[in-house]
Specification:
Length: 77
Amino acid sequence: MGSFSIWHWLVVLAVVVLLFGTKKLRNVGSDLGAAIRSFRKGMQEGDEGEGSAPGKLGKGQSEDASSADRQRDDSKH
């Protein structure tokens, strides 16, 4: 009763395809891929928002807001 051979896996694959059909399996695969891409995108956006480097705009800060801040700083000197 060791590990399964290739024939065992082929029989399991054939049963799964017969039960669910190729169209449903394709839809499940594409949904899973979309979920993984969305998760990765969310993780990247979360990392960018936490440690913004100097010179980079933070979340919610637009180009106009940062230039307005710079103009205020220049007018003080």
